[in-house]
Amino acid sequence: MKILVLNGPNLNMLGIREPDVYGYATYADLCRDIQAHAARIDVEVEIYQSNHEGDLVDKIQAAYGNVDGIVINPAAYTHTSVALLDALKAVGIPTVEVHISDVSLREDFRQVSYIRPYCLKTVMGYGFAGYLMAMDALLEATTCK
Ligand code: DQA
Question: Using CB atoms within 10 A as the burial measure, which of 10, 32, 91, 137 is most buried?
């Protein structure tokens, strides 16, 4: 099984950006946690981060036929991007939405997620562990078919 982990804008600034919200661990720490978990559950993983919406769309399109599941934290694009929703619908790959913070407890503009209706589930508020939970959920969903 191959999982693609996608991260949107400003997540490369983890450890620096708003540590009161996102903590002091860095993006490199996140990638290490994801790789270690992939090895533990015996899945292949590719991790990609971009600050550009079109790059994320390209990456989702390129996943077609090559990836069994997607974990996506679209960051700010969660709340704005029809293009990411359409890309996910186009490829039809099982997807789990992740947020490091609990967006349900934050500003009104963060209460909308354009991709959520497409996703198998949403994991929010568990920090980096949420990515690992999302990987487990994909593994379970795809092996239970
Ligand atoms: C985030 C929450 C978003 O609202 C925000 O724009 C982010 C990160 C999270 O992981 O908690 O950049 O997706």
Answer: 137
